[in-house]
Amino acid sequence: MRRIALAVVFLTGAALLPAQTLDDALAAYQRGQFFVAAQAFTKLAEQGDAKAQFYLGVMYSNGKGVPQDHAEAARWYRKAAEQGDAGAQFNLGVMYYNGDGVPQDKDEAARWYRKAAEKGNAEAQSNLGIMYENGDGVPKDRTEAEYWYRKAATQGFAKAQFNLGLMYSKGDGVSQDKANAARWYRRAAEQGNAEAQFSLGVMYENGDGVRQDKAEAARWYRKAAEQGFAKAQSNLRRLAGDQTSGVPKP
After folding, report:
1. Are 5 and 95 spatial neighbours (Cβ–Cβ below 8 Å)?
2. Would you say residue 152 has pLDDT above 80?
3. What are the pLDDT digits (tens) for 190-208?
4. What are the pLDDT digits (tens) for 58-67?
5. For helices 158-170 and 178-189, what crossing angle results, to 10°?
6. What is the torsional sign of CA 78, 79, 82, 86?
């Protein structure tokens, strides 16, 4: 089963102390003044500021400026999520999916992912697609999986682009179309997705959906191999006639 990745949040902003506004709090965080940022976020969050509630949840998740406390993170994410903050909805979905700070509940994870996905959050769209493809917390439905993958893929989300390419390659939930598979693999591969780089290499090696081109196959295998993708390393060595381990030299 494909794994759903945890959310990673980067906070940005710039301002001078004292931290009074959301921008001040973000800037304090960026400068490494986590305690100052946490105080400011807490004050704003208690006043009902959804973004502050979201960022305070992030700080409790990461244990920066406050003791790490996943239950408290979930509490603040929920407050922001109920106000419609898509990032908080997504993170709350992740917590329910993994049982992190809340009892594990795949149905509840899917519910929060859907709320974030409907607001255009690409990670939520991709994760919801994975859940539909696997029948995990929702009924198995490859047509619905393709719908959400496409939503995320058209926003440039590489994992969804790869998964959509895989569906076209297999004819799984869509009509089989190797050329379309190669097109989506390429989009993900160009963003550095190692699985897509490897898969595109296989297509070039076999002339499957693209014109056969061993040099192009080797180029994509190398990109994946340099990221530690073992199958790509093996295929690259085979093409190079190299029986050693690791990544063959160009």
Report:
1. no
2. yes
3. 999 999 999 999 999 999 9
4. 999 999 999 9
5. 160
6. negative
